[in-house]
Amino acid sequence: MRLGLAGMAFISVLAGVTATPAGSQEAEKLTVTAVSSRPGTVSGGDALIRVEVPASVPPGGVRVEADGRDLTSSFRPFGDHALMGLVKDLTEGANKLTARAPGAGAGQLTLKNHPVTGPVFAGPHEQPFVCDTAAFKTVTGATLGQPTDQDCSVGTRIDYMYRTTAGAFVPLPDENTRPADLATATTSEGKAVPYIVRVETGTINRGIYETAVLLDPESGTPDPLERGPGWNGRLVYGFGGGCDNGWYVQGRKTVGIMNDAYLSKGYGVASSTLNVFGNNCNDLLAAETMSMVKERFVETYGEPAFTIGNGCSGGSYQTHQIADNYPGLLDGILSGCSFPDVGFGTIQTLSDALLLNRYFKNVAPDTFTQEQQRAVSGFGKWESIGSLARAAGRIDPTGFCPAQLPQAQRYDPATNPDGARCDVYSHTVNVYGKDPATGKPRRPLDNTGIQYGLEALNKSTISVDQFIDLNRRIGGLDDDARPTAQRTAADLKAVRTAYRTGRLLNGGGGLADVPVIDYRDYTDDSATGDMHMRFQSFSTRARLDKANGTHANQVMLTRAAGHGFTLAGMVADMDHWLTGIKGDTGDDAPIEKIVRHRPEGLADACWTRGIGAKKITEPQVEGIGTTECNTLYPVWTSPRMVAGADVANDIVKCRKRPVDRSDYQVPVTDAQLDDLEAVFRDGVCDWSTPGAGQQGLAGTWLSFDQN
Questions:
Q1: Is 462 exposed, middle or buried (0-12, 13-18, 19+ CB in 10 A)?
Q2: Nearest C-alpha neighbor of 308 from the set 329, 277, 331
Q3: How far apart are CA 582 and CA 331, in angstroms?
Q4: pTM of the entire structure?
Q5: Alpha-carbon span 672 to 663, nearest angstrom
Q6: Minimal CA–CA distance to 454: which of 645, 652, 658?
Q7: Which of 152, 164, 397, 552 could be disulfide-bonded to 423 (CB atoms 3.0-4.6 Å)?
Q8: Cis omega (within 30 of 0) for bond into 77
Q9: Could you give the CA distance from residue 291 to residue 297 in angstroms, rounded to a whole number?
Q10: CA 695 → CA 339, 691, 692, distances in Å?
Q11: pLDDT one-digit tens code per residue, 392-440
């Protein structure tokens, strides 16, 4: 059974460790490990460190130092043969930790410390950047006030909230007095505790973060070496949706941490404004921020047994890509109304909708009926063409600038060509770089060779002449997202980079070894059109299959109008799943443990519509009307799938082959074939071969730090 990249990396590390031979006189060594983060991604000047001590060595004789500075007093016994301590006041850059004890070899670990303001691995900070601390509302309703520096920093604050017996969260009026209406929480471990929540709010990586844990102030301050009775030892990290306006701002809200479904069971909760895609539509920066916020949580409360990520839409991008590209940050994910990624799974469909909408409305009005237009798009509703076309503003550098960004700082091709460009490619310039000829970000966006409407033609829904005209005049988008007569040609360097760095979700990195619950409220039949289409879940599934030969780690759930699965139920299932995996000390591959410990009753399913919805447990498959579930919830397609692409949607720039009459299952005259060869002078997409520049991941935990 195939191991993911994370598993292979783990094996390679173990392969470099040699046991001391029996009878050897070589002293056993102390082992120093970083608990709160990877050694190379420490931030904020502190780190939670574990020192493993050989059984023959008294822990009391261990001395720990950092570059000669004695840190021994920071460490306490942790288990039978270990010490743990929070190391503080690390210098920026490299810090060498050394642990020594009589009769044992010294253990060493080099930490690379970064400023709490970042960056760590996402590359140089984006400028300009608008601070929102004065507008951000804390859980008490207060604001954070004005920032103290250009990185939008504020002091950390602690608030206590409590849950009333009436079911509301309100500020705790006095830490020394218990309100008469204070509710009791019973954690997942069966512990009954006062329902009081410690909330920490501050700034990390220029974002505003919040963490929440059940903690009675009478218990004192949290201790990372001694878990309090309210915390069940698990962390849920929340990711928010959006993308419109998701650049150049700190953000005015996280996904929200006062969540009764989590807190009432004892889960720790965390989120940051930069993990809400409406503030930051960049999965790389989101991963860096999550890494730093989780590090802070671990240093405060201790190491979680596991971390569950949950997010819908723009939150789903983050759960998928962080799990795949930065394994270890998330152990299991709940991915709602999901897409595989923002730059491709979403953008390719939106940009095609934009071109189709323009063609149908402006280039060739009244030449296609609404049903013909819908068939060309592949969507379940005609209205989705216009809806998705409007959402394509995220590739327009002038389309979705945030209100906080002053007009004078915004890009304008005529009056301010050096201004801030509000689009996904400019926001990810640390990865893609700039075109030296134009100075604009490189773009992995392409529609050359695509035969739009091919399936509609072959079903005789549109005529050959309509097909020819559509493909002759649909055109493309220039680097400012303005329509052009020519098709859009991708920058091949950007295409290769997208694959190598995981900007296009691969699925074979850390995600291969992570349990996934993909849950969806069906919206393909929305009367106004909706971009959260069901085929996107199957895109992720197809990529898992391509990378790993299986999608056994993904469970897919579908319902309508909120009738069916619940968040609390999914969290409980994921907890059960991860608890079983963590307790399995066997040598089997991660995917085998995932399959073995999937909870009974957790399997692909859908629910009938309406109140009293009934569960239908069956494999979820693509199609329309071939199973009970895809009869209730048809899996419609996309413009590229109508053109012949598969559901993986992982080809950025297709390879070409000559026009072939056999593509067309309707009569095509010689003159029409000549027209098609003229339209596609450079050939049509050969979807049976990998795309131009298509390749695997270069690795995980890639850094774009230029220092």
A1: buried
A2: 331
A3: 10
A4: 0.94
A5: 13
A6: 645
A7: 397
A8: no
A9: 10
A10: 21, 9, 9
A11: 999 999 989 999 999 999 999 999 999 999 999 999 999 999 999 999 9
